[in-house]
């Protein structure tokens, strides 16, 4: 359908003012009369066209949307990514319900650019997000305790690196050392090659025994030993082994939002999830932990 705002066009060009007949209106053959523009009617611009149409508006909107999507995908893929803390293993540094922004560029990639750009090296004490080695589809967050070449051991919960105790002000203990329970003995005095522990990965149990010298675990090249800050309630490298360098995603930057653990009993049904979302939206000010929101992570 033609737009009502568009001028009609003939095969000979745009239709403007009608031609005046030669001669006077009474047919006496006077001089040709030129059309006179009225002061009330502006002269039309016959060659001007209205180019903004509904179709071009839609195409422009789609192009803008696609550009935004491409930028968002690039940022999520290469720069930052959001994660949620689902467990208590990093308390009190990170709590269940903390939402993190993770810097995926800080450690670089695995190519030539790592030698040209000022990327950081993974250091002891860094908190990292990584693909869980046992199931890479899962993401874990822990603190780096041992780097390649370190000789590591724990004595009564105290971590020693290369024979020297390290300062860990971030660590939380739930109970004193227990010398009677085998699982606690393995947890608090690591490595132990004489007793297994509950939750210990069988493959790691066999590998670990080959890497222990003089009661110390040697961290191999390209791997990292990680533990949770909630040391007595953390499934970490003590139980499933090292984190390979290629599994490390990045380092958390800040907690951009933190909510109370009100949602732990949420059901997996569609109705339960809808109720869960509706409750969060309508009670956002009550469930938000404002003292943790926008907090930098160390």
Radius of gyration computed on alpha carbons? 35 Å
- CATH uppermost class of the domain at 72-261: Mainly Beta
What percentage of the residues does DSSP assign to strands (E)?
15-25%
Uncertain regions: pLDDT < 50 for 5+ in a row? 1-32, 34-39
**What is the count of β-strands?**
15
Give the overall average pLDDT: 79
Helix content: 10-25%
**Secondary-structure element sequence?**
EEHEEHEEEEEHHEEEHEEHHE
Relevant CATH superfamily of the domain at 72-261: Umud Fragment, subunit A
Shape: globular
What is the third-level CATH name, the topology of the domain at 72-261? Umud Fragment, subunit A
What summary fits the major beta sheet?
Answer: 8 strands, antiparallel
What is the architecture of the domain at 72-261 at the second tier of CATH?
Ribbon
Counting H and I runs of at least 4 residues, what is the number of helices?
7
Distance between the termini: 64 Å
Question: Which structural category fits the helices and strands?
Answer: alpha+beta
Main features:
21% strand; Umud Fragment, subunit A; 298 residues; five-stranded antiparallel beta sheet; globular; alpha+beta; 15 strands; eight-stranded antiparallel beta sheet
Summarize the structure in words.
This protein has helices at 54-79, 113-116, 182-188, 202-210, 237-240, 270-282, 284-287, and strands at residues 9-10, 13-14, 80-84, 98-103, 127-131, 139-146, 151-155, 158-161, 164-165, 212-213, 216-218, 223-227, 243-244, 248-258, 295-296. It has 298 residues and is of the alpha+beta class. The chain has a domain at 72-261: Umud Fragment, subunit A (Ribbon), CATH 2.10.109. Strands 3, 4, 5, 6, 12, 13, 14 and 15 form an 8-stranded antiparallel β-sheet that branches. Strand 5 (127-131) and strand 6 form a beta hairpin.
